[in-house]
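Morning run. Coffee first, then this:
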Amino acid sequence: MFYNRQNELQRLNERYAEKKAQLLIMYGRRRVGKTELLKEFVRDKAHIYFLADLSSEKEQLQEFTERIRLFGQDASLVENPFANWRALFAYLGKLARNEPLVVIIDEYQYLQSSNRAMASMLQKAWDEELKNSSVFLILCGSYVSFIEQELLAYKSPLYGRRTGQFYIEPLNFYQAGEFFADFSMEDKVRAFGILGGMPAYLLQFDAKKNIAQNIKATLLQTDAFLNNEARFLLMEELKEPRNYFSILKAVAAGNTRINEIAQAGGLDRGIVVKYLDVLQNLRIIRRELPVTELKPEKSRKGIYVIQDQYLKFWFRFIMPNQSYIEENRQDFLLRQRILPFLDQYLGEVFEKVCIEFLKRLNLSAKLPFQFDHIGRYWKNGIEIDLVAFDSDREQALAGECKWSTKKVGTNILDELIVKSSSLQQEAGFKKIYYGLFSKSGFTEGLRQTKRPDLFLFDLKDWATLKND
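And here it is:
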């Protein structure tokens, strides 16, 4: 089933409607749904789809030839297949001379690994033949570092030839929730905190089972896809996975600064800095700064967090407890090592969900001002879960997000007001509003508080915002 990639689909169709040669680069993490997006895009269009693999160059040339033969019903290609890539690309140009033809090379990195000159050959074919046709060529890849360094970088032979690039992001909370229409809003948050936004991961959960049952079935079995996916993913992308695993385990355990990560992982600080850069380039780790920083590139206040929820959950709960899984002690692991700590883990997840909610509320113009910046804030021991403000730093909203079984009361508001006074003094905001976000609602005393600058949001409000 095709889920919620309408924006990307629209952008592809807009380019297709231009009816001119296109050379697009599409990339994103494995399992993010690139292939399904492309299949949906070409469903009603003339197209040739080729999936590259680890076979030899000769075998891939033969397979690509066969895909072209089937499309064009050209029997001559049986007896006279293409002898080289130049001939194949020239033939594609002829096929697309008068009518638009979408040509997809999926997992392109494997094709180039079979011949390092592939990008140069494509460049020549584009300059001599393809750019003057109606071909809609898409090079699609899953290795983010390869695509950015080999295809998008200035040194690439295709630099200046590509007409666009698409980085396919994981689904956000609202989009991911479409996979679980029957889940309560609480369970949608839990599922998102465990699986993140990768469609292939979201498909693993069964809406007929509760969260605990799904964790046991999909993550705590030695033969389960999600039990091994993190390991396979990182081993494919990284040359020295052992050290990266140590770093990610340290970050998942709550070590967010370089010295803390180095100490927890037993690694030299210089090595940690180097590896963190690689993990950031892969969009696995993100360096986060207080949202009010004026010069983020020079700030020393950065902390490191795991960007992908599935990897964060895996390194927090699965990797450190693999011995229990191997010993078939899944019930003990679930009851003693995961479920008692799940709500604590979901606290940070809820902050991300609240930020997503507020962004959507911002688009609906239901706030007293439009904000341009949103994120977390911390300084001198003061932490605020989210702060949103306009570019002129005139108005801001400070928010606290509580994933708790207790209702939020006036004490939380009082604490937020005190913390916000320091924020206002540092950032210079002229007006601050207050937002409280709660899983379990609010006390009657807080609801009776008559403050025009106070906004209360619980999970019922999440359902009022339509999906994109």
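The first strand starts at residue 22 and ends at 27. Good start to the day.
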